[in-house]
Each structure stands twice: as structure tokens, then as C-alpha cells.
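[Q] Does anyone have a clean C-alpha cell version of this?
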Amino acid sequence: MRAAAHTLAAVLALFAAVSGSQAEVIDDILSSLNRGASFLERQHEHINLDGVVGFLMLQAELKEAVRTWPHTDPVSWAQRTTSVALVKRLDQSFEKAVTALQQNDPKYYREFEPLLSWSFWLIPQGWSSTDPSLVYSSTMTTECYDEQLSDKCLTLLLGTWKANGTPCIVTKPCRDTMTQFGCPHYSLSHQLLYFMIGKMKGCTNLLKGDTRPSRVNMTERSYEKIFCSNMMKTNQDIIKDGLTEQTVDIFIENILICGLAGFSDFYKADWLQHILRLQDEEVGCFGRDKSIISQIIGDELLEQLQPHRRVKRREKILPDGCSSHMTAVAVGALGGYLNYYLAEQDITKRPLS
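[A] Here you go.
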């Protein structure tokens, strides 16, 4: 009887230690997100569309976290209160940021307007894991397609390809491109995003018309699993080789998107620490390069002289040397970590496989 009591006490002590360390990690995440929110408040007029979408993904994660918060002890409830305050701050910044997007690039805003609402982004209600056996035997060395094709395929899904356009259109070029195997980096993450956006838009049967015998049993989830299994391999290779300025952005983007697709093995504790360390303490953004601030001032003047020159969507370096894209994917990924850690505390949401 005494031995059983000791065993129970040891288990409870271990649980308390794990819960305590997890509470500290959640504190670190919320502290980082608060600094990220301050950055958005200051830079809302300058952040590009991809940047705003990353913050909206964070908002969807935060609202889900607040809704399903698993504990009511004082420490945990204080963290929930912090999250509620963060949601309110972000809501105020979004109104200004979206208005600025509408003014700065009305065509682009119109094409991607459906993505500019936190409610578009669905949060995983169950977890699964990637499969190393699905990793490609070889990968292309260059991207499979350009941003213009990706944008065109997404507007056909969203129904924004023309005024009052029919949504959920999948052309053969789009289907062939978005199901191509062997794509690297951003091509790969945007293939995954294509399927996720289709699902969130309510499109069914994105694969209709694919008559290739080798793909006959493939489902949309099959593709998501293949893509994330390869994105996992990419991230493992990046860590093995050491994070660099060139690889850190895609490393975090992969965590954000595959986490949002429900693959919990992307939420590794050491990867979280890599993200947290990238935040600039002074201004709260991620991927800041102070050495190029003077160069940016020159570019800003050039932009004013050429007002119709379109800003490249994926990246925009802001006046304080911050990366709009990296900051967006980082805060979105941190929101995913928050939800995952809370789900881990809730026994009913443990991984499915």
C-alpha cells in the first residue's frame, strides 16, 4: 500500500513538474506574441498581404485557444486573460492593416480578400504525424512554378478571378502543378496551402478529373501528408546543416502551415526555441537586418517615384529592417505551438496517430 502511495506521489510530482515547465513555455510564447502585436500596431500601414495573413492565422489560433482553454487554476487562467487581451489588440490593428492593403494594392486585395478574415482559417481538431516513407527519392533544385501561377490557381479556388466569379474551379494546369511530386521549398509549401485553402473555402473534390492510374486512390489528405512529410525532411535537413539567413524563413513557414494542417510532430520543443531566439528584442519583429535600413530608405524613395511598381508579395523589408514575411510566419507558428501545448494538457485531444 505504501509503495503504491509512493508511486502515485511520484507520478503526481512528475505531472506537476511537466505542467509547471509547460506553463513557463506558454508564458514565453505569450510574451513573444505580445511583442509581435506591438510591432503590428506600429507597422500596420506597411505590412504586405502575406504579412497580414500570418497575423490572422495567429488570431484564429488565439481565439480557439481562448475558447477551449483546458484549465482554470490561477496561473493558467492568468495566461488565458493575457490571450484575451492580445486578441483585442490584434482586432484593432487588423482593421487598420486591411484598410491600408485596400488602398495600397486594390487589385491584389480584391483577389485575396476571403483570406483576410481570421474566421477563414480553421484550427485542427485532431492531430496526426508525418511519415518518413513518403519522402521523395529526389527533389528538384529550383522552384516548380512561379508566384503568378500560384496566385492564379488560388483566385480560381476563391472565386475572385473575376467579379462574382464561381469558386472552387480547378483547371488542369492548376491540378497538375499542385499535385506535382518532387517540388522544393516554397513550391512545396504552396502546394499544401492550395489544398488547405480549398478545404477551408468548402471546395470538395479538388482532384476530380485526375485520371492518372498511379493517383487513383489519392485523396486530398493523402497529398497533405506527402507534402508535410517532405517539409519535415526539409526542416530536419536545415537543422542538421545549421539555420542560415537563407533557410530560416522556409523553416518557420513549414512549421506554420503543416502545424495548421494538423501535423503535430512539427511542434518540436527545440524548434520553438529557435523561433523565439529570432525575435528582435527592440522592435518585436523576426528576421531583422539593421545593416540594410539605409538601403531601404533609398528603395522607399524609388517606390514613391514609381508608385505603380508592384511590391513582391512574399517579402517586404520594412523601414526598421524587419522582414514582413518572416514575422508573419513566426507569430502564426507560435500561435500553433500555443494551441498544441494546450491540447496536450487536454487528454481528449491527444494525437490520433
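[Q] Thanks! Anything notable?
[A] The two ends are 36 Å apart (CA to CA).
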